[in-house]
TrEMBL record:
Gene Ontology MF term list: lyase activity
Compositional bias segments (type: Basic and acidic residues): 556-573
Residues annotated as domain Heparinase II/III-like C-terminal: 369-560
Organism: Halogeometricum rufum
Localisation per UniProt entry: Periplasm
Lineage, highest ranks first: Archaea, Methanobacteriati, Methanobacteriota, Stenosarchaea group, Halobacteria
Protein name: Heparinase II/III N-terminus
Record carries keyword Protein transport: no
Length: 656
């Protein structure tokens, strides 16, 4: 069976077809038109006896001048925002490229064979497709201009990369209008990367002064790519793609003198129109912290460059940058690392703290955040110091763009003593594989599952079925912070159910209580995935003689004891936190995969609590100190009192 036949078979099977319908039904008309238009272009354009490259080249002015100074200054600010380790990684990537090896997404491809660069080698187009997109987007140039202050310190800058770019321009396979060109070298998303990287490389190298032949080549490359992108802005795709298009046109247009003004105008209009992707609380509407940082970085860049080139940034761009930065400061966890919620990994955007440093350097600094509720994005903090719990109570992102959303409703993350304890799963890849399905599934998140049912059906790389919006109440009552979230699976039938999660928090403890109601009894599981640096132990005081469920688990730093926690009496690190199951019929320790970066898998431990029935209630206590006895008394509405080592405390019914 061919790849096309295999894809068609998956699309029309009985399980996937309804999801395809629901996904398409929520798409905007311009998205559907865009899909059809690309298919028509791929069928019609390649056979035409037209040299599209020559048409674009003919529009390049005989004399094209550039002003690299402001862009060079902005690039220096971006470079200084990185940590020493991040800059070292970029330098290592540039050195590898000098030898002909390019690494993206934790996969290295040998691209140089002595006779040229294998722009269309088999390994380039192997999954994930994002690898080829980055390669043709010249992302390898980042190693030079973000790793090194001075081009003379990087042989790849003046020896290797110039002839790579010449080789790309001379390759027939990179001509505009070749087969599937909008899905390969001329994918607008890739063109955006190519423009930004070439422009920054040019400015960093100051090619017009020391390398006149290279400058002429880069002038032509910039003009042809900017002209193409201006004609192919991804209004049909939207989301982060649209923002990448807009900032690429702004960067290229500002760098190129008068000839670039139309690109600046187009790019600014795109960014102004896309500014509403940032929700009222500042979060990017795709609800992925990684894409939030990527899109925020673009707005910060546009804001700074417009000012440096003597232009007044529109209010929409300034407001988006400021709101987005406030959100990022508010979502910053104790360890300062990016929470891997929805489609998010490390290493594909600036780190969270590097982005905040960049924002501050370009004049956007909201200062420390005391925000605990981000209701538009659906994130709620219970605790805001070194010990903190974050609840993800958001729905699916924009209805027309659910591509990066997961079944993570009412999931939690926990940090103790500034370290991650309970984490999300991350993302392995975007291809429609078993690992992709797992990362998007409810089982991959720290929440509850009814039977084997997905709250929202998922399939393929991005398909999602009927959706719902969780309801949330949140506040402080009687000194206790209370979160109360609930949803009901859309539709009827035997898989219909409702889930309500209440969380009560005070100094050093969090009580998490779940109730699942359904039409028929099934097993209900609450899963808790720990960070790979954490081990799960049954506490020494746990009495398992009367029950199959241990009374408590210790969540212990699994390292060499040099983290500042010190060793306990058994020679191991003192626990970061403790977990006490409450009213669960079972509690088991197993393992689950963790994907901190694309194509990277790490095994970590996980806890699963369970019970069965059509109306099931159980929960657990998380705490930073051990308790010998933990008990919860419930009334008809849920937990009423919590008793810790004989001390009883009343629990508020609902937040104020």
């Amino acid at each position: 069976m061919s790849d096309l036949q295999s894809r068609l078979a998956r699309l029309v099977d009985g399980q996937t077809l309804p999801l395809l319908f629901h996904t398409a039904a929520n798409m905007e008309p311009r998205q559907l038109v865009g899909v059809a238009e690309r298919k028509v272009r791929h069928a019609v354009v390649p056979p035409l006896p037209v040299d599209f490259d020559a048409r674009y080249d003919s529009r390049v002015p005989e004399r094209l001048t550039c002003s690299p100074g402001p862009l060079r200054a902005n690039t220096a600010i971006l470079r200084r925002s990185l940590s020493a380790d991040e800059r070292a990684t970029f330098r290592a990537r540039a050195a590898e490229a000098t030898d002909g090896d390019v690494t993206f997404l934790d996969r290295t491809v040998r691209v140089e064979d002595g006779d040229g660069v294998g722009w269309h080698g088999e390994a380039v187009y192997e999954p994930p497709a994002l690898w080829a997109l980055k390669f043709h987007g010249f992302e390898f140039l980042k190693g030079a201009y973000l790793g090194h202050d001075d081009p003379t310190d990087c042989p790849a800058a003046t020896e290797t990369f110039p002839w790579w770019l010449a080789d790309w321009q001379a390759d027939d396979g990179t001509d505009i209008g070749t087969e599937a060109y909008l899905r390969r070298a001329w994918t607008p998303h890739s063109v955006s990367f190519r423009l930004m990287n070439v422009a920054r490389y040019y400015a960093w190298l100051s090619a017009d002064e020391g390398h006149p032949a290279l400058a002429a080549r880069l002038h032509r490359l910039l003009h042809r790519n900017a002209s193409f992108l201006a004609n192919h802005v991804e209004h049909d795709v939207g989301g982060n793609h649209l923002i990448e298009n807009g900032v690429a046109l702004v960067i290229a247009g500002l760098l190129v003198d008068d000839a670039g003004d139309p690109w600046v105008e187009t790019g600014v209009n795109v960014l102004c129109d896309a500014a509403d992707q940032f929700l009222p609380d500042g979060g990017h509407f795709e609800l992925s912290p990684m894409y939030h940082v990527q899109t925020l970085t673009r707005y910060l860049t546009a804001l700074d460059l417009l000012r440096r080139y003597g232009r007044t940034p529109p209010a929409a761009i300034r407001d988006a940058a400021e709101r987005g930065t406030r959100f990022l400061r508010a979502i910053e966890p104790p360890d300062g690392e990016l929470p891997l919620l929805n489609d998010a990994v490390h290493g594909e955007s600036l780190s969270l703290r590097a982005c905040l440093r960049y924002a501050s350097a370009v004049g956007v600094d909201p200062g420390p955040s005391t925000t605990t509720a981000l209701p538009d994005s659906g994130y709620y903090w219970l605790g805001r110091g070194e010990d903190a719990l974050l609840v993800d109570a958001g729905g699916i992102g924009p209805r027309h763009l659910p591509a990066h959303s997961h079944n993570d409703h009412l999931s939690i993350l926990l940090w103790a003593d500034g370290r991650p304890v309970l984490t999300d799963t991350g993302t392995y890849e975007y291809a429609p594989t078993e690992k992709r399905q797992h990362t998007r599934s409810v089982a991959a998140h720290n929440t509850v599952q009814y039977g084997d049912v997905e709250p929202i059906p998922i399939a393929g790389s991005y398909l999602m079925g009927r959706r719902f919006e969780p309801t949330v109440e949140y506040g402080v009552a009687d000194g206790v912070t209370v979160f109360d979230g609930a949803y009901r699976r859309a539709g009827g039938g035997p898989d219909a159910y409702g889930h309500r999660r209440r969380i009560y928090a005070d100094d050093g403890w969090w009580l998490v209580w779940d109730r699942v109601t359904a039409s028929e009894p099934r097993p209900v599981h609450s899963r808790l995935h720990v960070d790979p640096s954490v081990a799960v132990d049954t506490t020494a005081s746990a009495d398992t003689t009367a029950s199959a469920v241990p009374s408590a688990f210790a969540l212990r730093a699994d390292d060499d004891g040099t983290d500042g926690h010190g060793d306990g009496e058994d020679g191991r690190n003192e626990p970061l936190a403790y977990l006490s199951p409450l009213d669960a019929d079972e509690a088991t320790v197993g393992t689950s995969p963790y994907y901190p970066a694309f194509l990277t898998e790490v095994e970590r431990e996980s806890l699963t609590l369970g019970a069965s029935g059509a109306d099931v209630s159980f929960g657990f206590l998380l705490s930073t100190r051990p308790y010998d006895a933990v008990a919860v008394e419930c009334d008809d509405d849920g937990p009423a009192t919590l008793t810790l080592d004989g001390t009883e405390r009343g629990l508020p019914e609902t937040p104020p």
